Amino acid sequence: MKLADLRKLSIRKQLKIRFLLSNGMECVITEHGIAQVPALRRVPDFNLEQELTGVSQFVLEPAIVDAKTPMKPRAVSVEELSGMLAPASAAADHDEE
User: Fold this and answer.
1) SS3 sequence, the chain?
2) pTM over 0.90
3) What is the pLDDT of residues 9-31, one digit of tens each?
């Protein structure tokens, strides 16, 4: 799983995807596909792509809150999130043929 995959998913599903970095900071991928580390106050001494390989749990939350059908933030494992990404990449491979 790559950061670009998470960015595409967040845009397509209009989600905010949160995960903890090894230094204790949190990364948020917005519904616009932008990866942000809100607590960051200087040039980072880490690479988000490398940090992503060590993440075991993500929190998905809706970017748009609908009063009729509210969706609570939910924790998902790497395997579950990879499963959400797999159909999109398989469809893209099929379109190229």
Assistant:
1) CCHHHHHHHHHHHCEEEEEECCCCCEEEECCCCCEECCCCCCCCCCCHHHHHCCCCEEEEEECCCCCCCCCCCEEEEHHHHHHHHHHHHHHHHHHHC
2) no
3) 999 999 999 999 999 999 999 99
